[in-house]
Design a protein that fits this description.
The chain is globular and about 55 Å long. A five-stranded antiparallel sheet has the order 11-10-9-12-13. Strands 2-1-3-4 form a four-stranded parallel sheet, with helices on both faces. The mean pLDDT is about 95. The protein has three domains: about 90 residues, Rossmann fold, CATH 3.40.50; about 45 residues, no CATH class; about 100 residues, D-amino Acid Aminotransferase, Chain A, domain 1, CATH 3.30.470. By secondary structure, it is an alpha+beta fold. The protein contains eight helices and 13 strands.
Length: about 260
Amino acid sequence: MTGYIIYSDTTGKEFYIQQHIDYFKEMGVELKLVTLDELPFLPLPDFAIMRAISPITSQALEEKGVKVFNNSKLSFLANDKLKSYEFITENGFETMPYFAKKEDFPGIYPCIVKTRDGHGGTEVYWVNNEKELDLRITQNTLIQLPCDTLGKDLRVYVLGGEIKAAMLRSSKSDFRSNFCLGGNASVYDLSPEETRYINKIISAISEYTIPDYIGIDFIFHEGKLIFNEIEDVVGSRMLYTYTDIDIVKMYCEYIFKKVCSF
């Protein structure tokens, strides 16, 4: 059995990649590192771990019979914030009010402008007035009203449809709290009510497609969790920094069982 772990850029990810390769080797599986540029010229693997943001590539592999983690349906959903918000609201969950077009925006400032396909807190802008809005808005952005608790959010790690951990991220200098942008992180103990709420969202996603390994991010508004986004290519630095959870080993074991039963 052969698998590919696929990246567009491997810079700074060497140890993480090697973890996957080593764990699969222990299970008698050859896992090869492949870049998106190399992929078209290589033979098809039995399975692929997609660590590049490329739903179209995932879809093309699936059409050729390759089992892809995460699958393309999840990837298309997670990597378009507008689709994610529409999906969440259609399933009865709350988001901060969002507007896909400027003409639908009621002109409430300050607001936030996000690119629909941005990641890691990049391409998220604080906007104070219409002049700033016009500088930021494009066909690939959406407008959203901010929550009342800035610089704080929650990353929930979900593997195989089950909550594995929750990490609180915070920043005193930025309305964005992403760990990769210099924010702080700590383990967060979910309350029973929060756990039930998050599991309902996971169930809705699971009815739509399989969430192999994802992050679900929440912000805080009026004292409760509000959905913010689904992270498809979810990182694990916070888990290895602040917990003893070996999420890569868990993910590799999960994939091995899935592929063997496929």
